[in-house]
Automatic annotation (TrEMBL):
Residues 1-16 form the signal peptide. Coiled coil: none annotated. Its EC number is 3.4.23.34. The keyword Signal applies. This is cathepsin E. It is found in: Endosome.
Length: 316
């Protein structure tokens, strides 16, 4: 297991800053590549990263669909129920619901992960409403339940969450996380479930309605590389990919000199030293990324001498 790289912060009224360590594990993309399943998944899901959408300069308000990217690499621990049942989850700013596998789920994906047992929790309350959520590369169905949720010492009472009873396909089967804890706004929540953090605020468990995600090894330097006119963007902790407007991503890919391999843009590892620095400007602060930081080494045997870029155009 690699060292802790990212921390999720909550401002607690009683204990000050609460740090939730997130552990970096092998991503789903890498797992599927090693098993030779990545190309099959792209074909099955109809994903074509060569299809581009409009420029980001449109003044209209755009909705953000729920996306389940293949490179979610950072996970944290929560517990549900009394006594507590432990789960590894993604803290995802791109969605709003909390779900974990149910003991009644017999899908292969559920069998390989920790499963919630409502009969073992004295604080569980049955809701019984059906639940369905669709991600970009997978979906699941289940029922809603109510129980207490503990996140790094902060216990939320009467939290509605989903107990998945069917997780078809390989999307969750090959993942290293049990479930997802959504941190986005309530209007993105399926079935109008109140998100965990919003319940923390309502129950006065946090002093401020504020949370943050902090990463180490960020260098400040460089210059603007693309999207110089400015872009609206979201910070999505459910993926380690950086998705951008088609025209800018295509220009960046051509500038770096990448070639299309297995549905991804890659380059020989021997060329890393010749590749440019890429700079992102966020709130007038420049963040410099070296090739070693924005390229992912491909662990698949047949492509072991290649690396792939972490920038992708959005799905059409």
């Amino acid at each position: 297991m690699k060292q802790i790289l990212v921390f999720f912060f909550i401002i607690s009224f009683v204990h000050g800053i609460i740090r939730i360590p997130l552990k970096r594990q092998k991503s789903l993309r890498k797992t599927l590549q090693e098993k030779g399943k990545l190309s099959h998944l792209w074909t099955k899901q109809g994903v074509d990263f060569l299809q581009y959408s409009d420029s980001c300069n449109s003044p209209e308000t755009a909705s953000e669909p729920l996306m389940n990217y293949l490179d979610v690499e950072y996970f944290g621990q929560i517990s549900i129920g009394t006594p507590p049942q432990q789960f590894t989850v993604i803290f995802d700013t791109g969605s709003s619901n909390l779900w974990v596998p149910s003991i009644y789920c017999t899908s292969q994906a559920c069998m390989q992960h920790n499963r919630y047992e409502p009969s073992q929790s004295s604080t569980y309350v049955s809701n019984g409403e059906p639940f369905f959520i669709q991600y970009g590369t997978g979906n699941l169905t289940g029922i809603l339940g109510i129980d207490q949720i503990t996140v790094q010492g902060i216990t939320v009472q009467d939290q509605t969450f989903a107990e998945s009873v069917s997780e078809p396909g390989n999307t969750f089967q090959d993942s290293n996380f049990d479930g997802i804890l959504g941190l986005a706004y309530p209007n993105l929540a399926v079935d109008n479930c109140i998100p965990v953090f919003d319940n923390m605020i309502a129950q006065k468990l946090v002093e401020l309605p504020l949370f943050g995600v902090y990463m180490n090894s960020i260098q400040v330097a460089g210059q603007v590389v693309f999207c110089s006119g400015g872009c609206q963007a979201i910070v999505d902790t459910g993926t380690s990919l950086i998705t951008g407007p088609s025209a800018d991503i295509e220009q960046l890919q051509n500038y770096i000199g990448l070639t299309n391999t297995d549905g991804e843009y890659g380059v020989s590892c021997s060329l890393l030293g010749q590749m440019p620095v890429v700079t992102f400007t966020i709130n007038n602060v420049d963040y410099l990324l070296t090739p070693e930081q924005y390229m992912l080494q491909n662990l698949a045997l047949s492509l072991k001498n290649n690396v792939h870029i972490t920038f992708n155009p959005p799905e059409k």
